[in-house]
């Protein structure tokens, strides 16, 4: 049984797959622009793309501390879902249910939009249309699954979300102990680093300047101060997601929450024959501390999960290297769901950071008075959400009223996270309660544990 990864960190497996990029030049001193975007991940690049498509004459500079796609855009699970992963009810309290259904529809449409742009611009990112399959393995998970299906169908996803029985779920992916599953239609698998690298090349061809090795230190109306000089621009757009806490004055706006993954070596055909997975579904489960997996282009399995220890003071990881206990837990998930792969070596383990607002609901916004905008707080579904955010932020920055600028996440403001040590205690307590709930549900084979509700309440997730 092979449990030690051959490679740790080095940003992610996705870059080991294609090689780390050559660095672009940093900002060559003070510069003027029409728009300055902070962060060259999906959100910043999609925003630059749609701004340039709307107005080719705009002078846009994107400043990036490391390289384009260094953050979550190059480390995520490769799930292009178009899913609505936040509380429908929280958005509905301010805008009403119909506005939320409009946002659900807009989110659902992002999968087709990303694939349209990739085809149009020649971005090769292993994009494969598929279904999402989430399985349940005990009565509590079945109850959660049924509630999730009913909830999502009630909010406008009747055509794409439905329940399947045990036999159909096992016929798709042979996971021992499966009792049933939820299917989401109209999703896709992607190689995330290929997508972000391709998008960066496209916006450069359109005339956008990406200044790498250029860390933004402070944002003020009309000015971004960086380690390489200042960018003066009437419009400044922050697209820093989990790295937001590193900016002056924004330490407690979004919590940098870590997620980790492993990738196996390619599986031989005889093992794939036991597992199935011929539909290349993006795959997860209904544990409280859930997992997310994919079957990659070359026949590997990647397994990701939350629960990476939160680093005190909103600190960040070092180039994506997870701790040994996190790796052990991911390997245990792999062997539990796919026992046929228990002797397959682990090629790589890595982690990354995502941005979590205090109410766990994503936002995009723009203040015309200061010329400063922002987008993020995707809570783990940024591959698709960043596209909608980029389109919306481009409209907002240009002062263009549209159906997108009227969606209920626009200009949503929430309170800041608590100071330390309360942040650390809250997140650590949440994970402990979620894992305890999963152990209790597996042992008792009864209804969902109340420990999970307590854990979610503790950090505002519920």
Mean of residue pLDDT values? 96
The profile of the biggest β sheet is: 9 strands, mixed
Number of strands: 19
Query: Which structural class matches the secondary elements?
Result: alpha/beta
State the end-to-end CA separation: 38 Å
Report the helical percentage: 25-40%
Radius of gyration: 21 Å
Approximate shape: globular
- Count of discrete alpha- or pi-helical segments spanning 4 or more residues: 13
Given as residue ranges, the uncertain stretches (5+ residues, pLDDT < 50) are none
Approximate strand percentage: 15-25%
Describe the structure.
This protein is of the alpha/beta class. It is built from 13 helices and 19 strands. It has helices at 13-18, 42-54, 88-95, 97-108, 110-121, 139-154, 166-172, 192-205, 269-275, 324-337, 382-397, 422-444, 450-458; strands at 31-32, 35-38, 60-63, 79-80, 128-136, 161-165, 180-189, 209-211, 216-220, 223-226, 229-232, 235-238, 255-264, 282-285, 291-295, 301-306, 346-356, 363-367, 372-376. The strands form 3 sheets. Strands 4, 5, 6, 7, 13, 14, 15, 16 and 17 form a 9-stranded mixed sheet that branches. The protein has a 6-stranded mixed sheet with strand order 8-3-2-12-19-18. Strand 9 (216-220) and strand 10 (223-226) form a beta hairpin. Helix 2 packs parallel to helix 8 (192-205) and helix 3 crosses helix 4 (97-108). The chain is globular. The two termini are 38 Å apart. The model has no long low-confidence stretch (mean pLDDT 96).
